[in-house]
């Protein structure tokens, strides 16, 4: 078991719905040309292998110069049947990974110029904070989401090591989460959330969500770090963006399509600057940033054939493999700067790390037996990065964004949107109203909207 004594605080940030090739695949292309990263390629044979045929068109990966928006309502489906169609049928033990565009139902979009966007990727100019983190810390180019499925199932895997469901639903069924595990192991933990936290979708957590002990506003994060001695901060911190599928004020920052990635880049910058502002806190911190699943966007690496059985017989058929590869950054003094780890990881790798640090080497029998490595395998304690570099100036990049909405209330056309809508109603039933210290401003704005789905643009 690795010696993790230098680490006092583990910080986990999980974004939404982007693939590795979509966010970081450019690192292997000119002008960056990193040979240690398995990303995009200009080799003709590589391009031919991963060409998508859609509506008679041959589509290959292409650079997108627009990190700000996607066409309205364009959210490529990514539940279990959709992902299976994207990966294609196994051939000699691997998925062909060449049907991401073709798998989009025409009901989502029949426009070939819209459908082809799932093949796009961003570069350093479009994702400046992701590029900064990749250049100064360690990325993982074999981090896969746990299941070839959607958001809820993958977030349950990340936060439990198992999932009672294979597809999004409302309400989110009750099952033990890492919060329960940490409490049982006497580990202090806290969630800092920009908007409605994800596990407000699980009704048993609503009373906690409405309080200020375990669930605090992200606005408090920087002040808490500045005013609290490092050894009195929680030992495990979860930081959540504003989810686009949830009613929210201002910008969504989770990277969920049809939003662009610029708001998520700003959010990651804010998190990084808060974590590194205090040298005393930084010197013993470890932050992991990853994405819950790929959101339907292209990636060329076939997921490993690591099966996942349901926790109870008959809940759903076993998953035959991990899900699509997603971006992952390990940001800490205890990593090699500008490096790429090729360890096979998935979201349960974070639970393995917690088990090593706080559980005497074990998280649970299911997690321990899962044949993926731990985040600890990415660490390097030989040359600590004691002076974290400053982020680049991104004022012009952020100034090019469209105006921020005052409030957004999505029409619940998906199970996840319905789950967030139901969570808001549950919040009200627990007594939250316009005067609630965290959610009052949102509830107040929602009360004056004429209809769900209305978006008021700030002047």
Per CATH, the architecture of the largest domain is 3-Layer(aba) Sandwich
* Helix percentage: 25-40%
Question: How large is the count of helical segments?
Answer: 16
Distance between the termini: 56 Å
Number of domains: 2
* Rg (CA only): 21 Å
| Strand runs, count | 17
> What's the arrangement of strands in the largest beta sheet?
9-8-10-1-12-13-6-14
* Low-pLDDT residue intervals, each spanning 5 or more residues: none
Overall CATH class of the largest domain: Alpha Beta
CATH domain fold name of the largest domain: Alkaline Phosphatase, subunit A
Helices and strands: which structural class?
alpha/beta
Biggest sheet architecture: 8 strands, mixed
- CATH H level of the largest domain: which superfamily? Alkaline Phosphatase, subunit A
Mean residue pLDDT: 94
Please, could you describe this protein's structure?
With 459 residues, this protein is of the alpha/beta class. It has two domains: 387 residues, Alkaline Phosphatase, subunit A; 53 residues, no CATH class. It is 27% helix and 13% strand. An eight-stranded mixed β-sheet has the order 9-8-10-1-12-13-6-14, with helices on both faces.
């Amino acid at each position: 078991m690795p010696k993790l004594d230098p680490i006092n605080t583990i910080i986990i940030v999980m974004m939404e719905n982007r693939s590795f090739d979509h966010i970081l695949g450019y690192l292997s292309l000119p002008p960056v040309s990193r040979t240690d990263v398995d990303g995009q390629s200009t080799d003709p044979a590589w391009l031919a292998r991963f060409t998508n045929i859609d509506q008679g068109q041959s589509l290959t990966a292409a650079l997108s110069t627009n990190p700000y928006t996607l066409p309205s309502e364009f959210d490529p489906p990514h539940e279990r049947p959709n992902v299976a169609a994207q990966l294609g049928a196994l051939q000699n033990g691997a998925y062909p990974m060449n049907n991401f565009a073709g798998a989009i139902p025409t009901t989502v979009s029949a426009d070939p110029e819209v459908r082809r966007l799932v093949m796009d990727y961003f570069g350093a100019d479009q994702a400046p904070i992701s590029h900064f983190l990749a250049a100064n810390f360690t990325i993982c180019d074999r981090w896969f989401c746990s299941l070839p499925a959607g958001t809820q199932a993958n977030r349950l895997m990340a936060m439990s090591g198992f999932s009672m469901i294979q597809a999004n639903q409302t309400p989110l069924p009750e099952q033990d989460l890492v919060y329960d595990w940490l409490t049982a192991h006497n580990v202090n933990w806290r969630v800092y959330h920009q908007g409605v936290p994800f596990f407000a979708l699980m009704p048993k957590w609503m009373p906690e969500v409405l309080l200020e002990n375990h669930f605090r506003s992200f606005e408090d994060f920087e002040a808490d770090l500045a005013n609290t001695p490092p050894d009195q901060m929680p030992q495990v911190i979860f930081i959540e963006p504003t989810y686009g599928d949830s009613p929210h004020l201002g910008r969504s920052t989770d990277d969920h399509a049809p939003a662009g990635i610029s708001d998520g880049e700003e959010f990651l910058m804010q998190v990084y600057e808060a974590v590194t502002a205090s040298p005393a806190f930084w010197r013993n911190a470890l932050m992991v940033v990853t994405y819950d699943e790929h959101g339907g966007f292209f990636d060329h690496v076939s997921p490993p054939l690591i099966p996942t059985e349901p926790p109870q017989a008959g809940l759903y058929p076993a998953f035959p493999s991990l899900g699509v590869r997603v971006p992952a950054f390990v940001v800490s003094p205890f990593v090699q700067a500008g490096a790429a780890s090729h360890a096979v990881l998935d979201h349960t790798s974070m639970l393995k790390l917690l088990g090593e640090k706080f559980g005497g080497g074990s998280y649970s029998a299911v997690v321990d037996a899962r044949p993926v490595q731990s985040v600890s395998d990415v660490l390097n304690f030989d040359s600590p990065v004691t002076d974290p570099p400053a982020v680049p100036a991104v004022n012009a990049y952020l100034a090019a964004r469209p105006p921020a909405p005052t409030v957004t209330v999505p029409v619940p056309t998906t199970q996840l949107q319905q789950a967030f809508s139901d969570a808001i109603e549950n919040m009200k039933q627990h007594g939250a109203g316009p005067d609630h210290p965290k959610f009052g401003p949102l509830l107040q704005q929602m009360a004056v909207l004429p209809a769900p789905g209305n978006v008021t643009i700030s002047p």
